[in-house]
Amino acid sequence: MDWTAPDTEGIYTISVEVDDGKGLKDKTQIFLLVKAFKGNGLLIAHYPFAGNANDISGNEHHGTPKGAILTGDFAGNPLSSYYFNGGSQQIEVANTPKLNFQDGITLSLWCKPVPGDKETFLLSHGSWQNRWKLSIIPSGQMRWTVNTLSKIVDLDSDIILQKDSVYHVVASYDGETMMLFVNGNLNSFKIQTGKIRTTTLPLLMGQMLPSDASYNYKGILDEIRIYDFAIHPDEVNKIFAQSVISLVRDIDKVKNFQLYPNPVRQTLFLNSIKDNIQISNISITDIRGENIFNISYKNQNEIEIDVSSLKSGSYYLTAINNQSRIIQSIQFIKL
Asked: What is the pLDDT of residues 29-63, one digit of tens each?
């Protein structure tokens, strides 16, 4: 079945009903966003968290960690992301006129949240009461809230965030539409209008308001970017893909095996490059070094591994020979 998008921008509903002619019927509907993306603007802040909370955009919106702890990032690099314990920990960025842009916005970040029984805030500039915020609600959904001169609108993700899983999240607004992207794909959208309200409050990471730590975030945050416009969906996917590719690297520079596809969704294939090297055991660990599982083999040089049950994130696969020696360790990304 073909469907031609209308010329007029908007959110449209496609409904489908099936009937087997014997009394059984079913129907469903989906919502589609028809939109021409034409915005442009500037990168206002970029926090790679490479040993500190400094902004590398050139705008000097440097963050001041208040209890947040530097930890390893999703590639295993030490002191390259921040951990928040859900208590009073946060990172504060002093307010500036440049942070109070009004026409549009994009937030981009990597997170590994620990969803709880209350709403927790990843990023907030005045929160929903004054300007905008990105949070996780008790159901496990991401919630993007923008307060404009017209009204306050919440947009929830369709996806339920899982504990100890890694996500790339982008939230945007262009004066017409609010959008949420998860792992490079558009996940949800909603109509909103008007200029974004301004605030005198600081920008916060991990906390709702300077005076209220009741809803502080628990988990890891990394690679936070803030733009003063809604970036194109192709750019969202590009940022996600570039980040994933940068995570894919071999620990051992000696290439004894090929591991593919990497990143992977369901099945990994491990093939020996050298005929005289065979595998008797495979172990997979997460970036904290915790063992996920071990599999024994009878001296094989071609192996197929089902990783569909793994949560999204970064892992290490270690191949061991029949003399219990490590042949090679390779990092892979589970999508």
From this structure: 666 677 677 779 999 999 999 999 999 999 999 99
Three-state SS for 322? Answer: coil
Amino acid letter for position 185: N
Distance CA 61, CA 209 (A): 18
For residue range 113-144, what is the model confidence (pLDDT) as tens digits? 988 899 999 999 999 999 999 999 999 999 99
Instruction: For residue 110, give the amino acid letter.
Output: W
Domains and CATH numbers, the chain: 43-247 (2.60.120.200), 257-334 (2.60.40.3080)
Query: With 80 as the cut, is the pLDDT of residue 153 above it?
Result: yes
What is the H or E stretch that residue 283 is in? strand 279-286
pLDDT of residue 180: 98
d(CA 108, CA 95): 19
pLDDT value of residue 98: 98
150 by DSSP, 3-state: which?
A: coil
CA distance 333 to 245: 9
Tally of residues, the chain: 335
E strands in 35-176: 43-47, 63-66, 69-71, 81-85, 90-93, 105-113, 120-125, 132-136, 141-147, 152-160, 167-173
Question: What gap in Å lies between CA 132 and CA 203, rounded to an integer?
Answer: 10
Residue in 179, 182, 190, 185 with CA at minimum distance from that of residue 229:
179
Interval 255-273: pLDDT, tens: 677 888 988 899 999 887 7
Q: In this structure, what token pair is assigned to residue 101? A: 């842009």
The single-letter code of the amino acid at 44 is I
Q: Which helix (H) or strand (E) holds 241?
A: helix 233-247
Q: Are 312 and 165 in contact (CB under 8 A)?
A: yes
The pair of structure tokens assigned to 222 is 């990394």
